[in-house]
Amino acid sequence: MANKPLLPEMMKTHGVSRRAFLKYCASLTSLMALSPAMVPRVAKALESAPRPSVIWLSFQECTGCTESITRSHSPTIEDLIFNSVSLDYHHTLQAASGHAAEAAREQAMKDNYGKYLLVVDGSIPIKDPGYSCIAGISNLDMLKETAAGAAAIVSVGTCAAYGGVGHANPNPTGAVAVSEIITDKPIINVPGCPPIPVVMTGVLAHFLTFGIPELDALGRPKAFFGESIHDRCYRRPFYDKGKFAESFDDEGARGGWCLYKLGCKGPTTHSACATVKWNNGVSFPIEAGHPCLGCTEPDFWDNGGFYKPLSVPSGDYRKMGLAAIVGGAAIGTASALLSKAGKAKAVKAHETVNAHDLEKSS
Amino acid sequence: MNNPAFDLLMWARGPGFDIALVIFVGGIVLRLFEISILGRKRDLAPAKGNGFLQGLKTIFSRSVPREGLVKFAPVTYIGGYVFHIGFFVAFFFFAPHIALIDDAFGISWPAAGRVIIESVTALTVLALLALTYSRFTDPVRKSLTTFDDYLVLLLSALPLITGYVAVNKLFGDPTMMLAVHLLTVEALMIAFPFTKLMHAVSFVLSRYYNGSIQGRKGAES
Amino acid sequence: MTATLERGLNALREQIDAPVASFFTSCVSCGLCAEACLFYRETEDPQYTPIKKLDLMRRVWSREFTLLGRIGGWLGLTKPVTDADLTAWETLVYDSCTMCGRCTLVCPVGNDLTMMIRKMREGMSASGHGPVELIGAAQRHIDGNSAMGDLSKAIHAQVKNAVEAAGIPIEFDKPGVDYMVILSAQEIAEFPDVLSAMARIFKKADVTWTISNAAFEATNVGIQLGSRDIARTLVQRVVDAAESLGVKGVISPECGHAYQALRWEGPNLIGRAYNFEVIHIIELLDQLRAQGKLKTKGKNSRKLTFHDPCQINRRGGINKEPRRLMNMVAENFVETEDAGTMNWCCGGGGGVGANERAAPLRNIAFKRKKAQIDKVNPDAIVTMCAYCHHTLDNVLEEFNMEQEVLGLTELVAEYLDEDA
């Protein structure tokens, strides 16, 4: 493991030119929201970065995050970044299985104690740790054990970052995010369901070059999660003009109008989807005609329905309204009857006014 | 990990809205029952005009000021018009609001563009400021003003201001501002049945009564 | 029995109904009623804002007719209305409101403030806060036959004069005629020419009529004072007289509140519809005109304007009729600004004219009417209410204005075509 090749050598073997490498560094620099003057530093850092050991733990997850990473095009620089780290444990990607696989993890931990990077995807069940085990070890134990020697943790995907689908109401497994369990290590959240591949590699690149990136209040790198989908959406002009698709097959939908009324969560979702896009910059969900689900935000599963507009209440408010009408009518009637009783009392107490009664007794 | 802003938004869209709606709808119904059950005695004087029809007509016709009066209370009249029309446009023609009405009642109509909504919102807030100013300075308004009036002005202004801030991301986290916007609307809804805001519903009754009383006599209203 | 706070509050409670509850609920204290008010406009004193004059009734409503108000009352957050409150409101309710009804027509939410003042006066009078002049008038009328005292001799004298002047007999208590005529005390005392005018017009039009000895007085101080019981007694006299004579109708004279009392409040006061119709003299004249039974010859060439009495036009619905009659007899008829439905009150209505305490305020308030008249500068002002006539006569003199005031019936009679 000590003689892991550096990036330039890897580039050579994969036939990637230096020009292409610098271009990548430039785009990475801009992605990370750094000044263009930083491009040489990024290039230098990447060229000389040692290959740290990476342990990737997959807990309650769907492998979508891994799928996303493997969708990066080959050969690509992103690919190389992953190749430039020593991915010592990833039970979907690694060749070893069973005891050999677990042995690889233990070995990597021992060899790189305090220095390795821990990547986690998937949530951790804490209601009963037995809900999800690997090699007889519960997710909770494995996370605690592996996190102890990690330099930092990257929570990849919304499940690891915020609990995700596992954490969704009613959360039968008691699923929680990594940050709920590990509190003494730096954690970078890279949410998304799944996260954009280049964002994952960008975060890793940043970690390799400059260390932990600047994070927002939700532990997300500001460079990738600083802006809302809505603010960067190419359909925004339609929103501003008040032009909306009302259904998935109307004129508005065909015309590429705003999907707000179809439930788009763009206004409250922070992600680089609208700028970086997916599949090598081809498209992103809204461009494909589907409203944003808001998958980079905590509890996005429970946001009141994917197809309910943000301005629509999430509860069963119509029933509440009907009940309120009945209740209001009942209380109103009671109050009015009380008023009428008071009035009737006054009528009963009425003594006919005589013209000679009109001066006050003093 | 939780996002307090997002959680607040979800609360405002969920339980918060439900609570506000129950008080809003229940309160309005309560007040309307409280008023209408009191009833009024049948008028035994033979009618000269049609009180029912004139009552209905007055519900609309009273929206137009009597000739020559505007100049005596320009701030109240003009400010009042700008505020009411502005609030109506900002509420009923902003797309997210239409989406809410569509969801609740299954009816919708075209939305207005951002330029219109935002300029109208700004004008409406200015009108509220002018109305508030007149409550501080104009002797008649000043003498009539109670806490209720200031509360109502504030509650009417807050959704406009927070909505503007949320849409334009003037300050604060946009998710938080959206949540705050919803909360201010919910405050307005909760206060509605029990403050002077209730006039927005009861004016229909009042104008009807006024028109029908005058109309029966064959008098104008 | 004497007037007490409790009787007053009870009277207010009796008056609160759905319209009142709706009106108080709707008020947003915009203050536009002030701009419509004669007394505010001329004094610019905010205490004369119409809705403020109703504040005590609003408090009773809020505390006893709303859920939240009741809870507030239980918690001691609001105070009940006291006798001192009623005393403080006395001048606002009686001296600075002629119940002219302008505020009712400008209120953006449609509150009938005038109707509420009428209701509030029920509470004021029952608690002993009515103006002494109105109480005196009520006593005189209840004990006798007119608010001015015993007018039975006066009416016979005036009828005698009219018979002589017109050369047409006028019979008292004649059953089975078309109409029973009642007169405002003001007409009997000050403007008796209306009798000969009616005699001549009705003769030509083949309208038969009589005057009842039992009920010849049209005014009803119960309406102004705010006492249904007194108003009912007075209305009942007219109804009894008319029904015993078996007339087709009763002619309500040129008197604003008398028309309000008999035509609109009366059936509700006595609890049933009448067996006869009530028609205002100007309505009747206009009907006769339309039927071709009233024809005139020649026109008055002076510059004439018309003053609309609040209770007859704005609150009574008689607006076009007097104008059609004016155009029959006036060559140079000019309308004042705000004429018609939004005309300004003479300042004497609603009992304010009889109220000595209100005299200084009334003179200030008249400036509005004066400005209206000055702008047109007519030779004479025609009206169809004897009390407006009386008030205008007095204040015009006070302000050294030259204009003459005329009753419309007399003016029409002056140009009656005797040959037609």
Anisotropy-based shape of chain A: elongated
The proportion of residues forming helix of chain C, as a percent range, comes to 40-55%
Label the structural class of chain C: alpha/beta
Biggest β-sheet description of chain C: 4 strands, parallel
- Tell me the strand order in the biggest sheet of chain A: 2-1-3-7-9
CATH topology of the largest domain in chain C: Glutathione S-transferase Yfyf (Class Pi), Chain A, domain 2
**At CATH's second level, what is the architecture of the domain at 51-225 in chain A?**
3-Layer(aba) Sandwich
As a percent range, the share of strand residues of chain A is: 5-15%
Strand tally of chain A is: 9
| H-E string of chain A | HHHEHHEHEEEEHEHHEHEHHHHHHH
| Cα-based radius of gyration of chain A, to the nearest Å | 30 Å
Number of helices of chain C: 22
- Catalogue the unreliable spans of chain A: none
Question: Would you write up a description of this structure?
Answer:
The complex is a heterotrimer of chains A (362), B (221) and C (420). Chain A has 362 residues and is an alpha/beta fold. Among the domains of chain A are: 51-225, NADH:ubiquinone oxidoreductase-like, 20kDa subunit (Rossmann fold), CATH 3.40.50; 229-302, Cytochrome-c3 hydrogenase, C-terminal domain (Cytochrome-c3 Hydrogenase, Chain A, domain 2), CATH 4.10.480.10. Chain A has 17 helices and 9 strands. With 221 residues, chain B is an all-alpha fold. Helix content of chain B is 73%, strand content 0%. Chain B contains 9 helices and no strands. Chain C has 3 domains: 5-130, Fumarate Reductase Iron-sulfur Protein, Chain B, domain 2, CATH 1.10.1060; 141-288, Up-down Bundle (Glutathione S-transferase Yfyf (Class Pi), Chain A, domain 2); 292-414, Rossmann fold (3-Layer(aba) Sandwich). Chain C is of the alpha/beta class and 420 residues long. Classes of the chains: A alpha/beta (362), B mainly alpha (221), C alpha/beta (420). Chains in contact: A-B, A-C, B-C. At the B-C interface, α1, α3, α6 and α9 of B face α2, α3, α9 and α17 of C.
